[in-house]
Design brief:
Helices cover 26% and strands 21% of the residues. By secondary structure, it is an alpha+beta fold. The longest helix has 12 residues.
Length: 47
């Protein structure tokens, strides 16, 4: 399953993403660090 985590690079989000990846899910961390505006959902660079 593909899952987007808002704040996926933060303390809790990164741990959640790691656990989901270990279970075989495709995880996208949406955060300013990854080039995603978390308020609008717009990406300013390709992933």
């Amino acid at each position: 399953m593909k899952i987007v985590i808002i704040g996926g690079t933060g303390l809790i989000g990164s741990k959640t993403a790691e656990r989901l990846r270990k279970k075989g899910h495709e995880v996208i961390a949406a955060a300013p660090k990854t080039g995603v505006n978390t308020l609008t959902g717009r990406a300013w660079r390709k992933h």
